[in-house]
Amino acid sequence: MSILALDIGATKIAIALLDSQLDIHKRAIVASQGTQDLAQDLKGALQSFIHDEITHIGVAAAGPINVVQGTISPVNIVQWRNFPIAQFLQEIFPEKAVSLLGDCTALALAEYTVGAGVGHRHMLGVVVSTGIGGGLVIDGKVHQGESGNAGLIGHHTISFDSPRICECGRRGCLEEFARGPKMVEAAISQGWRGGNDFQALAQSATNNDPLAIKAIDDGARALASGLINAMMIADVHTVVIGGGVSFAGDIYLNPLRAYLREQAALTGFLGDITILAAHLGQDSGVIGAAIYAQTHSNQ
Q1: 77-107 pLDDT, tens per residue?
Q2: Within a domain: 107
Q3: The pTM is what?
Q4: Which residue range forms the structural domain that includes residue 34?
Q5: In a domain, 167, yes or no
Q6: Residues 6+ away with beta carbon under 8 Å from 54
Q7: CB-based contact 205:213 (threshold 8 Å)
C-alpha cells in the first residue's frame, strides 16, 4: 500500500509518498507563490509519482475548502479560488479516489494518532505560521463540519472595531494580530530592526530585545483569546500547537501557555487545559492526509 499525500500551504506544496506505516519514501516540493501557473507546476512535480503503485490519495489544504465539491480556495493563494483539486488529481491518477481535509485538521489528526496528542480523547490542533488555522479531533474522529472548515479559527473576529482588514475581507481577524508576519510587522512599526521574519524576531527576543519580546507577547495574547473562544465552543481541553512560529520554542510557547491558562481559569470549566508542542514538524500535514486517506476510503 502506498499513499500519495499533498499538504497545500501558503508558501509551498509538500508532496510525499508514504507506506501503510506512515514512513515517507519519496518527497517533492512546489512553491505556491511567485509562479505563473501553479497548477502546471504541481502537475509537473507529480509526474515523478505516476509510476508508483498508489492505492490512496490524501490532500491537506489551507482553507477554506469544500469537501463536498472537492475544491479549495486558500486565502493566501490568490490564483486558486474554487480550484477543483480532486478532479485535477484524478485526471493525473485515474480511478484513484481523493480524500480532502483542511491542513490544520490534518495536523490535528496526525498529532492525535502518532504525535503529541496520543492518549487524549479530544484535541484541538493549531497551526501558527504565515496564517493561523485549527482542526478538531473528537472521540478519535476528525470533525470537519458541513464543508470541511470546522476549526478555521484564523478568520474569526477578535476585534470588531479594528482598522485591520484581513486578506479574507473581514475586519479584525485573529490572523491580523497573531500570525508570524503580523508579529514581525508590529515589531518593525515600533522600531525593531533585527530582520524581516519571525525566526529573526524570536532570536532577538531570546537575546532580550524588549521590542521583540513585546511583539511576541502581544501575538501570543491575541492567539490565546482566539484559542479560548474555540475551546469553549467545542469544550476541548487539549491543544497541540504546530507550524513555523511554534518552532521558536519556549520564547513563544511560554507566554502563550501563560495567557491560555489565565483566560481558561476565567471560564469556570477549562481550568484543566493541556497545551502541547507538536511533535511531527513539517511532516504533520502529509502524515495527517495519509491517515485520513487510509481511514476515509474504508468508511
Answers
A1: 888 999 999 999 999 999 899 999 999 999 9
A2: no
A3: 0.91
A4: 2-102
A5: yes
A6: 2, 3, 4, 17, 93, 96
A7: yes
